[in-house]
Amino acid sequence: MHFTERIERELAKLKAQNLQRTLRCVEKVSGTEIVVAGKTLLNFSSNDYLGLASHPALQEAAVRAMCDFGFGATASRLICGTTSEHLQLEEELAVAKQAEAALFFSTGYAASSGVLSILMEHGDVILLDKLAHASLVDGARQSKATLRIFRHNDLNQLEEQLQWARKKFPCGEILIVTESIFSMDGDLAPLREIAELKERYGALLFLDESHAIGIRGKPQRRMGGLAGELGLSNRIDFQMGTLGKAVGAAGGYLAGSRQLIDYLLHRARSFIFSTAQPPAVAAAARTGLAIINSNEGEILNEQLWKNISLFQAAMKQLPQAESAILPLFLGEEKNSLTAAEQLLERGFYVPAIRYPTVARGHARLRITISAAHTEHTIKSFVMSLNLARLFLQSMLPT
Ligand SMILES: *Cc1c(COP(=O)(O)O)cnc(C)c1O
Q1: Given pLDDT bands bounded at 50, 70 and 90, which one contains residue 397?
Q2: Could you say which of 183, 210, 233, 270 is catalytic?
Q3: Ligand 1 centre and the CA of 361: distance in Å?
């Protein structure tokens, strides 16, 4: 079969399964309002939980850095792409994560996949939560270590696998990999219990805090994420996250021991063989971080949790959410597409999340709440959501 025919067939198959994807062009952004195809929509899909992506201070920081350095970083970090903005960001990240050092990668994806692919070796074992992000899966798969998947947040199965790994690979390292807040479900990992297990079995722990930094954590130290909130930071061997979500900028990081960071400089291919993020991005990320640590950040965090409660109360949803991600499970791929279309017509933007982002038949609307949403916006969104749900129910065979 010709390549083009093969592709055509594959695309037709995806469409028949309601798994087609398209890129929607956002023509303008102002806070939680976006313009798509000339229509102003209220956005309930972004990861800009604190509204920092539109904060003037981040833009000003980026402009200042551009005046000093130009725009592009011009080379990889190890050639001439490391500026004072990159290094200061790394120092500030290390402090925020209560780690000795941190390394700034071009994306969170590059940080997870680049680090996990080289951390463990042949004769070691990686134990990965079933719902872990694709970047963690890809890194673990590239590793020469043996990979086992445990059921989502299942401490019993995790312990069984730890026992198995200790017996089968008595001289090997064992690495547990999980997220603190799961990206598509918004639930928390039982982090304290996982930390205890890893110590009992002499294992290591890699934690992805992409959706927790800026949201969880101790007051004015919300970059610490869930590990910081529970006082566990110094028990997490590898702390990873992104600067593209609540921080409002872009890029990813890995925080850990100084020796580890030195090792990554020599081995992490996604770091070595990739152009550095522009200095302006590092400057914006530093400002996002500073705001999160400030009194203003604390006010934004309070507003975020207030908005989450408001949404939940209006939806009559219990128990209290643990993050800013509130999925509405719709099962069938087609249902999620219909609901998303209905909401779009009413002026709300929430895309349908389907396979392969989540398992087949587990489609959902991934609703995210931001500190930048207004009370009025949230209330009218809930009204439209309920109408979309009624519509879906009316479509069900009786
Ligand atoms: C978004 C995300 C990443 C990747 O971060 P980017 O900076 O967007 O590449 C990694 N892990 C999780 C859990 C994420 O949600």
Answers
A1: low
A2: 183
A3: 23
